[in-house]
Amino acid sequence: MKPTDLVHCPIRPTHINSYLIKAIEVDLRHINYGLSRTKGYGKKARSHFKIEDVISFFESLNFLEINSENDGDWEYFVVDKVFFDQKKKYRIVFCIDQKKPEAGGVITLFEIKRGKS
Question: Model confidence at 87, in pLDDT bands (50, 70, 90)?
Fold first, then answer.
């Protein structure tokens, strides 16, 4: 189910596979707080990303060919990438509604801790 408090913002046109993304919708609360075991948002911040950070990371995916999984009209992507700090790797999870392919939905973005993949 799509959260109600998504941040919608335009981005530089970003090519991902055959899509041309011109905007993203971001669940910034999920990014910074994660989800608890009871499916609500966590109580303690795990990160302090701003919308500008998410936009910058997403735009850095320009011209990538990325494996995905389909679920009905939605296509889901997972990308692990070194970005903000050259010593740290981050994972972004996003989706594209094939009925509205000009917008990407960023589900989460987080640092991958050592020993995890």
Answer: confident
